[in-house]
Amino acid sequence: MTLETPPADVAALLERIQQYIFGKRVRVKSFFEDFDPMRSYKVSKSRFLRCLDIATLPVTAEEMETIADAYRDAETGDVKWKQFVDDCDRVFRTTHLEMDPLTVPPAPGGILPPRFQPKDTGALETDVDSLLKRLALLVKTRGVVFKYCFQDFDKPHHNYTTGLHHGSCSETRFKRAFPFAKRFTEGEIDLLAQKFMDKRGDVNYLHIHDIITTNTFAFPPAPGTSLLTMRPDSRVWDQQSMEPELKIQALVVMNRIRIREFFQDFDKLRSGFVTRQQARAILDSSLGVKVPDADWEMLVDKYSRDDGMFCWVALCEGVDEAFTVKYLEKDPMRKVNLPDGKTTEPARRNRLSISPAEQELIDSLETDIRRKISQMRKAMKPVFQDFDRTKRGHVTKTQFARAMSMCGFQLNDDQTDLIALKYCNLGNHNEFDYREFVACVDPTEGFEEQRVKMSDESTYFDKRGTLIGTARGIRV
Known about the structure:
- The protein folds into 4 domains: 10-99, EF-hand (Recoverin, domain 1); 122-217, Orthogonal Bundle (Recoverin, domain 1), CATH 1.10.238.10; 239-347, Recoverin, domain 1, CATH 1.10.238.10; 350-446, Recoverin, domain 1 (Orthogonal Bundle).
- The chain is built from 21 helices and 6 strands.
- The chain has helices at residues 10-24, 29-33, 45-54, 61-70, 81-89, 125-142, 171-177, 186-195, 205-212, 244-255, 259-266, 276-286, 293-303, 312-320, 341-348, 356-376, 381-385, 397-406, 413-423, 434-441, 447-451, and strands spanning 169-170, 202-203, 273-274, 310-311, 394-396, 431-433.
- InterPro entries: EF-hand-dom_pair (IPR011992), EFCB6 (IPR052603).
């Protein structure tokens, strides 16, 4: 049944059977179950030999006898077919893992010896490595799948379910289908063919494909070129010097969060204190306020007791100052201002700290742009809105330079970087706030809104239509 018959050794026979059933995906167990209806996991020797013959395993009649004798039960004389099946199925899985749950099972087919071993080329091994590196680089840069070039010339093999895509082809076909014949000499291609030639004289191209696509020949990825790649920044941002209470207050006001209710869920006794871990969990998870580690340390130092408890009441009172004034009942005539855009600006904006010299240069540049816009009488905002598809009010710095060029302003890189210091207000150097820029340099911006506003209030009637300054008894 097989071309090669090794010595009648049970271990060697099992290895040969495992190679066969792994390639053919044979379920040996199904051939024995019909002969063991009581599930005693034992059958007579004649039935065992009959099952092996039905399964068409690559063993001879003498080797079947050897296997049957190895698994024979000394008491009954029957053959333990279940033990034989478990030994064969170890190529797919590890049985009885429930007895040793810490065991790490091998991958399917992992216990089998490698199907192919390259030949030892001796002194030419260094040359082969250099050829493989060149081949891996060409495959990577040109996007070629090496094994696909040879699958049409694949040779069948008796150990596999299908004759296609076994992984080897003849030497002549290998040279014919080699994808980089112009980059390699005939001697180099011959060296690769001799290195990966099997016992039948065929070249195992699949093994070459596996080698050049593994991490051994993987090339480091190219450095990122994205404009959003954060690099070490020596500039100072506003939020770096801002108190953490102001940041939390801005986020609470912007999102209209009832911060006290979250802390009260952890403070059942209303003592006004929670643990530090609970306070950090509330700020990070429940509220969605991502407090940096440096700001958290400042909050801990300011609102913690000696025993480590965090005073959330004091923090909430400081945050609530954006909505009301403490002890307002003692001063009923005091006026309380509602929160506005300036209150939430720390949560929405993070501006750069600009030196007076830089501010002077920016003002001069804005004056020139404003004067030229007034002369051209060209609307700037629609040009920027074409780049802002999501209506966020921000464009990239490159898009800002393109929009200015479309409007007739040829700004160099230094001028673009200079004006970006003022209007890149999201904590990075790339996102440019064009709405704030247009409102500053375009004198016609907002003119239409001002036109539709009511001029002056009526001299004779108030907003309800009642006459002003007349007696009640006047008849119309």
